[in-house]
Amino acid sequence: MTTFHVRHDFNPKVAREALLLLKSAPIATEQDFLALARSYDFELGRRQSLTKVVASLRDLGLLQRSERRAPLTLTPLGQYLAEIALRDELLLAEFIHLRYCWLWTPEAGGERFSWAYQTVAGWLWEEAPTSIESDRLVATIIAEAEKRFAIKGVSFSSASILGIMYWLRALSPPCIVGDMFRRRTACAPETLLITLEALATVKGLPPGVAVRLDAETRRRACRTLLIDSETFDETIAQLEELGHLIRRTSDSGESVLLLDIPVPWLAPQRDQQ
Amino acid sequence: MSGLLAIAAKAAIIPTFNARALRDTSADVHDTYTWHVNTYVEQPALTALRLSFVNAVLQSKTPKACLVAPFGYGKTASAIGLWHACEQAGLLVVPPVACGSFTELALAIYGWLTFVLPESAALLHEAHDRFLTNSAESLARHDERIFGIPFDQAITAIRDKLERGYLDFDDVSVNLLAFIEQATAIAQRAGYKGLVVMIDEFQQFLGNAHKGVLIALRQLVWGLRVRKLPFGLVLTMDPDTERTLADRAGDILHRIKDDGLYLDIRHIYDRDFPARLWQQYTSALALNAEEQHAIDRPTLEALGQLCERDDLSNGPRTVINVLQRAAAQWSSERPTRYTPIHLIDDFLNGTIRFDGDRGIVPALVSELLSFPYFQRSGERAAALKLIAAFPRGCPEQVAERYGLGQAWRQLNDDLRGEIVTETEEGLALIELQRVGRPANRLNILLRRYWMQITDQQLFAEDAVKVFRDLVLPLLFPAKVHDLNGWRGVSEIELMADNTYAGIIEGTSSPAFPLRRIAIAVRRADSAAELRSTIDDVDLYLEFAIDVRPEAESSVIIHSDSSHVLITLAVNRTTERGLSGSISWIAHYLNPHPISPAVVLSLLRYLEREQLDTLPERDRTRIEDTLSRLREWLLSELFPPPLFTAAGVQVISSGVSALKEFFFQFFTQRWPNYQGLAQVQTWSTLLATYQCVLGRVTPAARVGQEPVTGSKGEIAALFEQTRHAGFDKFVRQYGSLLQLELWQGDQAAVRLLPHPAEIRIVEQVRRHGDCAVRTIYAGLRQEGFAAAEAEQIISLAVARGLLRRDGTRLTPTHTPTELEIDTRLRELTKRVQTLGAIATQLSALLRPFDPATEHAVAAAWRLDQAEQQISALEQQAAAAMQAHRASSRRQVMQHLPQLEQELPEAPSGPVHKHLAAARKMLNRERDKLKEPAEAFVADPAKFSPSEIETLVSEIETWANTARYYADWVQFGRDLVWLQEALSRIEERTHTIEELRDQCDRLSREARAVAAERGLKGFAEIDRLRAQLIGLRRRFREIVSERRATYERIAATITETVAHLFDLPPAVQIPAYQADNEEQSYRLLRQSVTTTIRRTLALLDVGLAGNQQISAEDKKTVATLRRQIRSLMRLSRDPDQLFNDSLLSLRPNIAKQIRTLREQIATITSPSSATTRTRFNLVEALAVLRSGPADVATLLERMNDKVSRAELLNDLLSLYKQGQLRLIVDLPEPEDAKDYSKQVPTP
Questions:
Q1: Which chain A residues have a beta carbon less than 8 Å from that of B616?
Q2: What is the residue-wise DSSP string for B135-177?
């Protein structure tokens, strides 16, 4: 069985608590991790074991452990997100959503759980407004996975959908109200900036080259951020006004030159290639 | 009047004349409309329509033109312009007229044509009269046909109404068409190229568009279509009428539109219209050069931009209104050129009445001017007005023209994007843009916030209130359930000391649920402190809001660990600013430094926005931003270092930080606390738990033994309808309930006390008793929430560990080992008196082992045993009572027997034995009699055994006595049989055999009585059976017995006669064969009576002898005493006779004989007297007891004695008391005449 499972043990609250704990002090073992969580009355501390949480953090590249007995240490991205976690839970959820979305790309491949995540999110975005039917999503993902990866025996279940929904439901403004998925009408400007940079990266654009806002780029960005096209335009205008990008219009269409990237390592980035 | 004054006086609304005005004041109508024509500016679209229309009339196409627009768009003015233009084209035009019916229309045409063509008045009158007559006749005929109204009567009334224009009917339009044809012809004959009729305000004509009007209109329109006349019809109507017509008679509307002369004039006014109109005014009214500048060019341009927008103006009516204002201003004492700023001012002060009905411009400008941003600067305010006057955009040079270039640029810099927008033509208010208007309401709100932000706003006096309103609900979100959220936050109210205070209760950590916190929010410089007198709270939490920029936030925990002061420096500039996803907002707050106070102020501003009314997009974005701002604010107000200084390490910020703080603070304060409320439904669960406690054994209540049963039973005990999932359900109870067995269908749970229950029980035991309040306070000190503390006390009581008596708690008694053992022995003893007991009861009375059993449980076990024993005892007592009653009845039955003397033992073979037995029975009876009476009097005094013995002895005695009686009877019967047999002198075989058998029976009876005594008494039944058999056989020998009887009777009769020397006087009863005893008894009685009566007569005889000596008298007296003595003896036959032989006892016979001899020595009775008395004796002897008739007596004596003698003797006997004399008065019918029966001697 090839797993495409998105861990359902890992949700925004758990992620925030784990990052804050790991940021606060070096943690030698999972038992210490658990004890520390309990000392702060964290929800994390009510679990029997934090193995799966640790695995999730590691899957997302937020935690590193050189060897089995080595202490649990946040990666630079993990440390960055831990700082975000301290002050901006909403943005943390957006960033982890992006992280799930960018750990696999059609161009470079990557983690299969990431493919499953972005496929579910993307499918909902395509169908929006649509009701969320877990069984249907599971069937779709399994069929898609077998087709794309030419494999049999896909490990993906409604628990995986649950793991995805934790993060989609945490986005603000929400894309899920009740059981209905709708495209979002706003997003944090930084997330679009990160997304455009990631798109430029996977397209192989050299650093400093403007990103053409062609239909495909717009669509892919909107799909990633689960926003509608109007929001895309508004956010581009907002980013321009804030000085994060320069918008250019020429005969070949509209393009943007990205001036800075707020979060390194979160998504593909050209100067890190 | 100058031209400007004429403009100023010009009515904004041109009134339309009606049909009568056209007929009666035609010249005035003409002049008025002509004046308006002078100031009329024809719009290009109308020019095209006019040309087409005129051509169509001229070509006899009978065209129909229609102008549609709401009020104020110049429909009437346009019609007047068209009227004038048509006249210029050589047409005769009936000017715009308002009419309400077809007859009014005909009247208008008739009136106006008569005015224009006075020479054709007669023709016109004739035509009009025909129209009226035809119409009236047509309707009168209709009425005659349908309603039967006589034609002559109807025509007069109809004609009158028609003339007044009150009447319309289906066929009126047909007649109108004919009239129009004639009028057109008359006009043509007068040299006109055609006739045009203009109906203004067509809605009046249409009225309520009822069926009749629509039919008539349809006939008119369709009639015009099929006629080729140089006639044109012009209609004006508002959009509502157009809609009505479209809905109810779309075909008519389409026919009108078919001519291609249908124009909605709402959109025909371009931005140049005001300028052109002003130009028209200047030329028409011949304004001089100065007057021409009463309004400047930019104003006319601004007015043009407003006039082309039907949402911002009422089109031409607004234009005219403004031009009038400009003219009036120039005509005032201080002539001033009218500018766009004046225009907006007039909008704001309401001078311009036609502002598009919605007042968008004045409302918007008024709102913006209210912001301090504009109030602080007159130039900015003026620039705002200037910009507002140009919806398409105010160019910078226009602003420069009014000296507002700098302000224009400032607004452009400050407000562009949210309040103003830069269009191709200049700067315009965003809100006035139809298209390209930013949908981003949030940005507008932010800009507006920025415009109104002041120091006052940031450091408002109401910072405390804002904190209460905005921050407290975030820190203490509303209660969801007992383990989530808080209640009472909304009840934190302003106190007299300007502090907001109140008590909230809720949960921030499930580890410390339902905390009760007294909260106060105050300014840091306020001296007020949270009143610590508030009872029963877990924490006094005080927020001091410090608005000084240099202030620093801090947390201070008071020494008693119950009071926490959090000082919040809300106005301290944050180092990191607005970071993350809201960093862009800083742009809108520039140049104000970012601080919690600023964000608080912004939040307060944004939260006033009515989000419900906004498009979803705006609403979503604003809500998202609000969430982010709130998170930033809390994160900024409650960063981790704030708590570190107070010795509490937290790693989160914001609400999470406060939660961590509370958790650690509470953990330090109540280190041993183990919460009772572990799940959100805890109170419901515990209610069930308490119910369960009431249904299980004390041992189970305190966890000494499990509660066992089937899974279904155990689940049902906890009110679970199904046992599936019960094992998970149990977990909700935590340590209070353990599932010990859940296998197959078997289940066992153990109910365990909470440690706090044990503690309070021990405390109560130590003190003997405690106030509930004290225990409650102790539990609260340990960290239990108020509700938890109450529950713990309730649980301890429900478990039987404590007893609640009002406001006091007392320990339930726990017996010592000795007490339990003693009680066990007592119960065992009681059980033993009950005899055999059930196994279950035996189990309850098992020995107590303190090592394995709690004393309370053992006591409960013994309670259960005692209950069972008591029940058994009650049963036994009831049984005993019943037994006593039964025994008493038994004894009572025998009591009379005990009272009576036993019959004497009969003589005969068993006499000796029976006499001995009787003696013994008497002795026994004497012994039993007293206890028996005592028992009957009060059975309760006798023990069961005593009763048993007594009853047994009495029963035995009674049985024996009964047997004794039977023996006595047997003995008598045996003796009697023996005697009877002995009386029979015959020696027949039968009799001999009977005698032998009787003797054997006698011997046998004697042997039984002798050998077995009382024990053998029961054999009497057998003996009696034999005796009965013998007696039966005896009864069978009748002839022998009869012969014997008769012989004996004769013997005794003879003996008595001989003894008294009298003839045989004894009456011998007849022998009764079937009752020999009775026969002998009667015989003896008869003999006895005879003897007694004879003795009585002897006595009478002695008494009657008066001729004796004194000595003899003494002797007589002695004799009489002897006689009386004998008489007394003779009353009892047994005294007279020997039992067996039925012969007089010798002593009696001797006494009688002696007596008679002595009497004889004294008296010499006459034979007559003797005879007489003999007869009397004989007669008396046969009398039966009871009264006897003297006549009967005489009859018996066969008249052998005289009545006198008899009566004398009877009287003597009476005196001696030997007989009674009874005088009886018979009823007349029973009376007898004795004189005839008994002759008197």
A1: 185
A2: HHHHHHHHHHHHH---HHHHHHHHHHHHHHT----TTHHHHHH
